[in-house]
Write a structure and sequence with these properties.
The complex is a heterodimer of chains A (335) and B (229).
Chain A lengths: L12 H20 L1 H8 L41 H4 L14 H5 L9 E6 L5 E4 L2 H4 L4 E8 L4 E11 H8 L7 E6 L7 H4 L12 E5 H5 L4 E6 L2 E2 L9 E3 L12 E7 L6 H5 L23 E4 L9 E4 L23
Parallel strand pairs in A: 1-10, 4-11
Antiparallel strand pairs in A: 1-2, 3-4, 4-7, 5-6, 5-10, 7-8, 7-9, 11-12
Chain B lengths: L10 H27 L7 H30 L8 H23 L4 H10 L1 H18 L3 H7 L1 H7 L1 H16 L5 H16 L1 H5 L3 H22 L4
Helix pairs in contact in B: 1-2, 2-3, 2-8, 2-9, 3-5, 4-5, 5-8, 8-9
The chains are: A alpha+beta (335), B mainly alpha (229).
Chain lengths: 335, 229
């Protein structure tokens, strides 16, 4: 497999600065013996990255990402989240419920060989191996806002292709109405799947679903990379869904199976708490989470406490073009 | 029953120990704030600070409450002296927690501060715990303590309510990982069980207050379980 290195997508100065700060921080922590002391007093490893870490992340060798060749996005209207933050602050409960757990525990995750199948109500089921993920479709960069249901957000340059292109290739039957997705189930590699304590009490494998018309919407993409390179495991390597107008938990990671169905498929968070997380999960500032407000969000960019920005959350996360998909629906009911 | 020999440490050694405790608790808080200001606290420094100060306050409160049973079990009278400073630090961490929430989470929108405290049960519960800790911190001044007499002990048994409210605050804010907050609640209940004889001496008014709090918690729990809008 050859990934051509694209000069235009080499790291920017910003990213380099952030990485050096990151390393610096690790060094300072080590010098102070801080991580050791931290694990003594902190009763919880999962509440936070940083001060409450249970383990030092220094022991694991970082996962190797590869530069990708793709059509660069010419839309860059907002300040992007620094790569270092987007790849170290993650929700991926298969590797633990703390934001820093995935980056610490997923570095030895095996992505090659991989198998992604598209099956169910289709004319021509497809199975893609690891290298097919990068070579079957033309890759393009798309810079999307990502809004987490926990009221923080990022701006991330993804690399991938429209989900519609792979579904069209499989030729859906007219009876197909929904698309369901499944994350890899591999307890040997994913500590959260071995223990309910680590995995936040979720029943694995993680599953998600979309209506077929949502899946065919051109914004919906399968991502195989970010910041010009292949995805790191904590962000859902080797292939993940990105649905920018829905809360982040809809954008399922490390997908092994896509099934077209005629019935609305179950989704993990709906199974866990259906009064808090619905099937649609469209970003909607007017409908609060039962326990917290969704009216605003904290945009994660660079800079410390004093530069933190809380901004208004936009309906459909600012992707108003999808509103027509939900015409006539009561979005308070179908949250 | 075996009569253990009481433990006593030399006054200098104990002073050093006390100073170390002060330095660790304060330096840790300062260090984490410094990291937050210089963007060394991970992706979301505000969230990291909220987590650190919140869990810190809860841990310190639990520690302050286990000091008495440990001291009486080990017959280690000096140990009791640490109870007040650690309790005060717990209140101080809780104050930092609230300040981070107001300053960095809500960015000083005072209307929002008020409505969040009222509308969000997990914040209402946390805020109640903070109010209790503040009252206990103020009344921990020696002169006030002397003036209050027996009532002081009744009032300060509210720390057990505060620790349970803290645990519930934590429980209600997590998405699904309820095990850790549950551990705090169980530990708090065990502590109350351990101290039940002492707590029974509380006056009727304190019992009334505790019942009110429990009733209130029950209602908010129902609110939390309600069908979505």
């Amino acid at each position: 497999m050859i990934f051509k290195f694209d000069k235009a997508n080499s790291l920017s100065e910003n990213d380099v600065t952030d990485e050096s700060i990151y390393k610096q921080r690790r060094d300072i922590l080590k010098k102070l013996g801080y991580l050791g002391a931290g694990s003594l007093l902190a009763a919880s490893g999962s509440a936070s990255a940083g001060p409450l870490d249970w383990f030092s992340s220094d022991k694991a060798e970082a996962f190797k990402t590869t530069p990708l060749s793709f059509k660069k996005s010419n839309l860059n209207l907002e300040i992007q989240t620094p790569e270092q933050k987007a790849t170290s602050y993650n929700n991926f409960y298969e590797f633990g419920t703390g934001k820093g757990d995935p980056v610490e525990k997923a570095q030895s995750f095996q992505v090659d060989p991989w198998s992604l199948s598209i099956e169910g109500l289709v004319e021509k089921p497809i199975t893609l191996g690891y290298e097919d993920l990068f070579s079957t479709f033309n890759l393009e960069e798309r810079i999307y806002r990502l809004r987490c249901v926990e009221a923080w957000s990022m701006v991330i340059p993804w690399v991938g292709f429209s989900l519609a292109s792979i579904i069209k290739k499989a030729q859906p039957l007219s009876s197909a109405k929904y698309v369901s997705f499944q994350t890899l189930y591999d307890p040997k590699q994913m500590p959260g799947q071995r223990s309910r304590f680590v995995g936040g009490g979720v029943d694995y494998p993680y599953v998600e679903g979309l209506r077929l018309d949502e899946a065919m919407q051109p914004l919906t993409m399968l991502s195989v990379g970010m910041y010009g390179k292949t995805l790191p495991p904590q962000n859902g390597a080797p292939i993940r869904l990105v649905v920018p107008w829905k809360y982040g938990f809809k954008s399922i990671k490390s997908i092994v199976k896509i099934v077209l169905t005629d019935k609305q498929p179950p989704t993990t968070w709906q199974n866990l708490a259906s009064d808090e997380y619905g099937f649609y999960a469209n970003v909607n500032p007017a409908v609060d989470h039962p326990r917290w407000s969704q009216a605003r969000e904290r945009r994660i960019t660079s800079g410390g406490l004093l530069t933190q920005n809380r901004i208004d959350t936009l309906p459909f996360n600012g992707y108003e073009e999808v509103a027509s998909l939900y015409k006539g629906m009561d979005l308070r009911k179908f949250y | 029953m075996i009569f253990k020999k009481p433990i006593r440490i030399g006054p200098t050694k104990f002073k050093i120990f006390q100073w170390m405790m002060h330095i660790v608790i304060l330096a840790w808080l300062i260090l984490v704030f410094y990291q937050g200001l210089t963007d060394q606290l991970g992706g979301d420094p505000v969230q990291s600070l909220l987590d650190f100060t919140g869990i810190g306050a809860l841990n310190l409160l639990v520690i302050s409450l286990v000091i008495s049973p440990i001291a009486s079990y080990l017959k280690f009278g000096q140990f009791i002296q640490l109870r007040r400073p650690i309790g005060l630090y717990s209140a101080f961490y809780a104050l930092s927690h609230l300040m981070v929430f107001i300053a960095f989470e809500l960015q000083f929108e005072m209307g929002l501060v008020l409505s969040e405290i009222i509308d969000r049960p997990y914040i209402t519960v946390g805020f109640t715990a903070f109010i209790i800790l503040s009252i206990l911190a103020i009344t921990s001044i020696n002169n006030i303590k002397k003036k209050m007499g027996r009532k002081w002990f009744t009032l300060h048994s509210l720390s057990y309510i505060a620790v349970i409210l803290g645990g519930i605050h934590y429980l209600w804010l997590v998405k699904s990982a309820w095990y850790e907050p549950a551990i705090y609640i169980i530990v708090s209940l065990l502590l109350i069980l351990l101290r039940r004889k002492k707590l029974q001496k509380c006056s009727n008014s304190a019992c009334m207050f505790i019942y009110t709090v429990l009733l209130y918690m029950h209602t908010t729990w129902i609110y939390r379980q309600r069908a979505p809008l």
